[in-house]
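Quick one: structure for this chain?
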Amino acid sequence: MESSRIRLRLSKLLHWVGDITSRASAATLVATLTIACVVLLIVSGLPSAGEEAFSSAVAAITVIMLFVIQHTQSRQQIVTQLKLDELIRTSPADDLFMHLEAGEDDELIERESDQIALHDTLRESGADPERAAVSDEASDEPGD
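Got it. Here's what it folds into:
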């Protein structure tokens, strides 16, 4: 119980950091601070201790941001996947799409090739993708 509460708080903290750092003002602030640190190091004669401290701080921030981005993107990807799964589940689409994650690499490559071929055909003909999908379904009807 306690570990799930800690995990929830940590997740909220990571999302907060991700929200704050994804703003343009955060990028401007980081660029300004970086330029200020570089100028300060140049003015002070590039002391090795200052360079090491700057490099260590940048490395630490980079690693932290890596985990923040990974956490937030992973969560967003799961949410998007669940939404897509629900849309596919409730539509008359082929059930094979629901199980692609567990499919073999050859099956994924084949499905991707089919989609690329369909897109190329639509692009060449200038057809409406929805009408093409409906006509594809009609051509799959028995008796054709």
